[in-house]
Each structure stands twice: as structure tokens, then as C-alpha cells.
Amino acid sequence: MKVYLVTGTAGFIGSSISEQLLKDGHQVIGLDIMSTGTHENLDILKKYPNFEFVFSDITDTVAMKELGLRLKERKVNAILHTAGQARIQMGIQNPEDCLKRNILGTMNILEMMRIAEINNIVFSSSSSIYGLMHTDRLPLKEDYEPDCLNQYAWSKYADEQLIKTYCKLYGMHGISLRYFNCWGPREVLDGEFAPVIGLFFRKLLLEKKPLTIIGDGFQRRDMTFISDVVSANIKAAEHCELGDIGPGEVFNVGTGINRTILDVANLILKALSLDKETHLVFVSPRPAEARASQADISKTKRILGWEPKVILEDALLDHRDHYMKLWKIK
Length: 330
Description:
This protein is an alpha/beta fold.
């Protein structure tokens, strides 16, 4: 049995990683302040006897140092750091909160690691770092120059650099995973800035409203299912523990396939037997968002030994059934 610390353990990605580690027989120390995580996710994890919950805020420097002292004797194998502000538009609307939670929070985690003598960290980064500069030479490669269009993307890139710095200074092992449009069960679907697939199902099934298409709908996105994100994190943690990866290496986590938002909307309408003529509404485009994204995952396959298993079309009907059961829709 290994011991892992998962920050943001009650969130979409954090709870999914935590549960898989628990199923694999490991001990998980889950850290969350419950700002966006759900009690439903936490209740699932609390059913496992090898789960321990710590209610604490990664932006609280004193609390993180105290946690580091408490963990010093626990011999934690790795930290999977998923906590932080997670949406582009929220970062634009409240940049101070974004930078506090993402940059100060990550620095506090790294300082806690140093105090606790924890050597390994896997960080949840973002494909938003690529911005607009490279959309004419897709797929996007990890060595492309960053083009951060908003505070959220900038904070994620700053986190990657912080992790590299701590790895070089203190002999830590760190990996940053740049996710491409993660989707699946446990998505947080509140507000208009929710992940697009879950938001579309919420609009159609729960609210009985048409889908809102931003701009012309021809933005292209690489949609990555949550189980593939989980397996990438676990693979990355294994390589951190082996120490066979360079300090603070960055890897793309996507499918390598991109689709237009309009295509995604039409697939969901088809899955629900609804016509597109009356269920699509077009509105003005949003600022500071990339026109197209697509992951080059050759480096991730080659070095981490990871590749995606789930394609959008294959999982969409199960996802429809998940939401119909969740919302008790017949």
C-alpha cells in the first residue's frame, strides 16, 4: 500500500483520481476546502477505509506548513495536485482569486512538500497555455512557446515553472499534465461556464432549454474522458517515484482528435433524439479563448507509456444515461 495526497479531492478530477487510487488498494489523504468540490463526491470517498480527509485551504500558508510537519512521518509517495481555480472565464472575472488560488496555492503545496520531505508531485495543468499562436500548426506540442490569453492560463504556466524550480532546487520529481477539455461524470455543472458536454446535457435534460453555441460553433476542441485523465495521473506518479523524468517535465493529455463544438452539440442532440433546428441558439463569441486545440500526445505515449482509451462517440450514450439516472429522468 502506497500513500498519496490528493489536493482538491472532492472535485471532478480530484475525486476521480482519489477513488481509483483507493480501488487500487492505496491510502489516500484527501485535501479540500470544499469551495467547488461536492459533498456527494466526498461521501463516495469516505466509504473507503483507507481514505482520510483533511479540511484545509491551500492558500493558507500557515496551515500548509503545519500540514507539512504532520505529514513528515507519513512517508507520502506522491502528491496529485488538482486543487485551484479551474475555469478561464472565472479567472477573467476574478483575477485576484485566480492568482491566489493557483499560484500562491501551488507554492504553498511545494513548500509543504519540502517540509514533509515529499519528493514527487503530479500537477493538473491546462492546454489553455498554448493560446492562439499555434492554431495554424496543430497538433500542439509541449515545446511550443506559451501564448497565455488570460489570467487562468498564465497562472497554470507559472505553476509549471514553480514546479520546475522546486525540482531543480530541492531534488524533487515533478510532472505537469496539460489537459485538453476533460469531461465525464462528476463535472461541476453550475453556471454558464461549466464544461461544454455536461453543460449541454444539463440544458437539454434538466432545464429543457436549447443549447447556447458561442460564436459560430466551429471552434475545435480535443475532448478527453475523465478515466483517461485519471490513468495519466497514475502513470505520471509512477514515473515521478522512479525518478526517470526530467525536472518538471510537461506532457499533453488528450485524444489527438478534435471536433467542432457544433459537432459535439449535434452528437448530443442525436443521442437524445432532438432536432437541431429548434435546439440551437447562437450568441457572441467570448474574449481570450483559443479558436482550436488538438493535442500531440506522441511524447506522452513514448515517455509515460500512456494513451487514451475512450473516444467521445463511444462514451456519449453512457454519459447520457448517467445524467438521466442522476436527474431521475425517464
